[in-house]
Automatic annotation (TrEMBL):
EC top class named in words: ligase
Family statement drawn from the similarity comment of this UniProt entry: Belongs to the class-II aminoacyl-tRNA synthetase family.
Ranges where the Aminoacyl-transfer RNA synthetases class-II family profile domain occurs: 21-320
Protein's UniProt keywords contain Transport: no
EC code: 6.1.1.21
Organism: Psychrobacillus soli
Gene field: hisS
Compartments, as annotated in UniProt: Cytoplasm
Subunit details: Homodimer.
Amino acids binding L-histidine: E81, G82, T83, R113, Q127, E131, R258, Y262, Y263
Main location class: cytoplasm
Protein name per Swiss-Prot or TrEMBL: Histidine--tRNA ligase
Amino acid sequence: MDIKVPRGTQDILPSETGKWQVVEELIRETCRMYQYKEIRTPIFEHTELFTRSVGDTTDIVQKEMYTFQDRGDRSLTLRPEGTASAVRAFVEHKMFGYPDQPVKLYYMGPMFRYERQQAGRYRQFVQFGIEAIGSADPAIDAEVISLAMSVYQKAGLKKLKLVINSLGDTESRVAHKEALVNHFEPHIAEFCSDCQNRLQKNPLRILDCKVDRNHPLMATAPSLTDYLNEESAAYFEKVKEYLSLLNIPYEVDPNLVRGLDYYNHTAFEIMSTAEGFGAITTLAGGGRYNGLVEELGGPASPGIGFAMSIERLLLAVEAENNKWADLSTLDVYVIGMGEAAKKKAVELTYELRNNEITAEMDYLDRKIKTQMKSADRLKAKLVLVIGDDELEKQSAMLKDLATGEQQLVPFSTLIEQVKISITTQVEAKEQ
Ligand code: HAM
């Protein structure tokens, strides 16, 4: 068969899923600490949701969406990101009326973008993201950023860089937009057709253009920082103060504009500075979106959030050469030699599992030596061997694979002894 996974997608094989589960667990635990609650929204949405929120001049909407007509002739799109769906649900379910504001949500699931595949860039990837909707307190900007940093730190990453910027409020942006149009207009013919389209609609996007990034006018373009009005500048100062209070180091980059249209005020990205991480160094991105709830039909409710892909997190862990904790979870490998002992092995394996002890056995009638090799490969903590001799004594030979010690244990106390041996081995390892 020559059917392979579609370009830009990947199978995550059993040897890899352990790491994913560790990360997912760590993320859910962090969200619990910070009191963000999970929301699950559909994988596809009405296309209009993304054109209205992410923005119809962005690369995501113009080039990267998986859009299709369903049989009822509706235009639907596989979600390229999670903020639009979270905000749609916030409006649709009137979460603005919840007594506890801001509403703090998180999501984790596949997103789809038709991008050129390279290391760290996929067409289907898993995003973990959070959204805090209903507060314009700069302290929550710091909370959102600190949650992202905390996830990376718990995953063992040290080589991180946080870059922040302020995109200002509407007034600041209008002033900046005018300055950008004046700057680029006389030479716009030298730019790509996308940039020409962006000039009037959304000149900020020009600064994000991958084609024209080396054009001399890019470096001299008016910076948003110089156009922030007093209120926006004061807000940005407070966000920085809170980050300092939490001892979170950051760099301000006035050129950080982000690739989605809904942002204003705080924008940020977290990069990996690990050598060998590859060309794409952005691990996570996010920012404030104070007009988005209104844009999608709700009452004015300010919001902020971020998203990160799990794939890039795992790549960063690898680039820093961090080892995952021993992901093996097999406690006991049960070996039954001979027909009668085999029956006992089946019974015992079942009993162990019912006692919250992970257990595995052989289903290929292999030799004892081969089964022992399996136990080693599976990193079992203990092996139980039952042959005719043991059966006669109503006992099993319990072998500790860490120390090599063996003891004959009666069936009547076997579960108890297995539990003790596991605990002893785990404690010895931890010391
Ligand atoms: P974004 O910058 O488009 O923002 O994506 C956020 C993160 O998703 C990236 O930093 C990266 O980790 C991951 N990502 C994006 N595209 C790919 C890809 N093709 N392959 C692998 N990973 C990818 C957003 O999506 C916003 N919704 C973030 C946000 C939430 N802003 C406010 N709230």
